[in-house]
Amino acid sequence: MKRRSNTKNMAAALLVVARKIDAVDEVQRSIKLVLEFLKKRCTISFFYAVQTIYN
């Protein structure tokens, strides 16, 4: 009985971690989109300043 609950807890923990990783991916994707937008709209020097802040 104890073994089964440990497995369930591990599965739940893995789900939480997977969701957090997914959230990080979303943030990185949106930062990339913002940087692409800035690259098209702004001067090169401003784009590189923003890029160094995020990297």
Notes on the protein architecture:
This protein has helices spanning 2-41, 44-54. The radius of gyration is 19 Å and the shape is rod-shaped. The protein has 2 helices and no strands. Helix content is 93%, strand content 0%. The chain has one domain (2-54). With 55 residues, the chain is an all-alpha fold.
Element order: H for helix, E for strand: HH
> How many strands, what sense, and barrel or not for the largest sheet?
none
Beta fraction of the residues?
under 5%
| Quaternary | single chain
Q: What is the average per-residue confidence, as pLDDT, rounded to a whole number?
A: 78
| Poorly predicted spans | none
Shape: rod-shaped
Structural class of the secondary structure composition?
A: mainly alpha
The number of domains: 1
Number of helices: 2
Radius of gyration, in Å, reads 19 Å
Number of strands: 0
